[in-house]
Amino acid sequence: MTLKLHHLNASRSQRIVWLLLELGVPHEIIHHKRNETTRLAPPDLMKIHPLGKSPLLEHDGVVIAETGAIAQYLLAKFDPAHRLHPETDSPDFPRYLEWIHSAEGAAFLPSLLTLYLGLAGAMDGPVGHRTEQEREKAANHIEVHLSQNAYFAGSQFTAADCLMGFQIVTAKAQGALANRPATSAWLDKVTARDAYKAMLAVGV
Ligand SMILES: N[C@@H](CCC(=O)N[C@@H](CS)C(=O)NCC(=O)O)C(=O)O
């Protein structure tokens, strides 16, 4: 087995578990557990990569960090038929790229800040209010997009859905899906997929 994923519990690494299962590529998952108090990754992850964060992919002795880079790497190597990523000359390609990157960018940042500011009890201050505005803006953008498209990249399920999944589950937990029927319907649809259920069984 040459493909290894370093997976941290309760983390965005589950997007890559899901993607690997959708691809059907043989792989090994190495489980790492967050410190119960600090919620940080265990120090042994730093032996794999200096940032010590998850996901980390190891393939033939090469280590790759960053969810988007890992996804693009896996698709380039293991999806020659473009089952889960559009060809570069497809009309879906620009949207696909946008959402692949939004999953760690504009769509995700306000949710992450909400989590941190919430832990610091600072959601009621000016930074919290600004964060809330950005979170609403991102959620509205997603809702409009999914009311016009079956999936993030267009009419087909792609890796962009796997990457955005964690964001939408987080947004739901933060109460942001109330009155967002298109996003809720998309979530119901993709979480019914066999690979998504298999990802949950792996242990998120
Ligand atoms: N931009 C990175 C972020 C990686 C990251 O921050 N991972 C979190 C898990 S959600 C982590 O490992 N946190 C534990 C820690 O920082 O100790 C990516 O997309 O992979």
Give a verbal description of the structure.
With 204 residues, the protein is of the alpha+beta class. The protein folds into 2 domains: 3-83 and 196-202, Glutaredoxin, CATH 3.40.30; 93-193, Glutathione S-transferase Yfyf (Class Pi), Chain A, domain 2 (Up-down Bundle). The chain contains 8 helices and 4 strands, in the order βαβββααααααα. It has helices spanning 14-23, 67-78, 93-102, 109-119, 126-148, 159-173, 181-191, 194-202, and strands spanning 3-8, 28-32, 56-59, 62-65. A 4-stranded mixed sheet has the order 2-1-3-4, covered by helices on one side. α3 packs across α6 (159-173) and α6 (159-173) crosses α7 (181-191). The model has no long low-confidence stretch (mean pLDDT 96). The structure holds glutathione (GSH).
Secondary-structure map:
Layout: E1 3-8, H1 14-23, E2 28-32, E3 56-59, E4 62-65, H2 67-78, H3 93-102, H4 109-119, H5 126-148, H6 159-173, H7 181-191, H8 194-202
Parallel strand pairs: 1-2
Antiparallel strand pairs: 1-3, 3-4
What would the keywords be for this entry?
single chain, 204 residues, alpha+beta, Glutaredoxin, Glutathione S-transferase Yfyf (Class Pi), Chain A, domain 2, 2 domains, four-stranded mixed β-sheet, 4 strands, binds glutathione
